[in-house]
Amino acid sequence: MSAPALLDPEVLRRMREILVAAISTRSASLREAAAEARGLARGLCPRLPTAALDEAVTALLIELDGYPPPAPPDLDGQGLRPADPAEVADSLAFAMRFDERGRARRTGVEYASKIAAEQLVKRLPASGFVLMRRAPTAPHGTL
């Protein structure tokens, strides 16, 4: 038995109204509109499992042509992309030359760190490692 069949038709009608009003009138995102409709259904039908309510909201969004197509997998929601080998080499060389506070390490490896980083970057893919990098984000305090 599907989730929309478990819900009272009046509850489904009211959920549909909330979705339409939130999206068209207030320009709410699909996620916000779905949360509002889910909250209404949870309040009117508290005994229904959450999965059934989620399925009903999804069915209504599909019916309203508002359900987004599946997005390509985003590893842990981090917005990862393949890292450029030069970026990795620069980061490794920096890590060998400076400590976590950005102060120079006085070990005499300033020149050797660049060579070692380049060799590491060449060896990582050969060992089966895949290097990824997060997409750039806005600096703190800017919205």
Give a topology summary.
Layout: H1 3-6, H2 9-25, H3 30-44, H4 50-63, E1 80-82, H5 85-97, H6 110-126, E2 132-134
Helix pairs in contact: 2-3, 2-4, 3-4, 5-6
List keywords for this structure.
mainly alpha, 6 helices, 143 residues, 2 strands, single chain
Number of helices: 6
- Please list the strands of the largest sheet in the order they lie side by side: 1-2
Largest beta-sheet details = 2 strands, antiparallel
Instruction: Indicate the percent of residues in helices.
Output: 55-70%
Distance between the termini: 45 Å
DSSP, total strands? 2
Which structural class is indicated by helix and strand composition? mainly alpha
As a percent range, the share of strand residues is: under 5%
Weakly predicted, low-confidence segments: none
Rg from alpha-carbon coordinates: 25 Å
What's the average pLDDT? 76
Along the chain, the helix and strand elements come as HHHHEHHE
Taken from the alpha-carbon principal axes, the silhouette is elongated
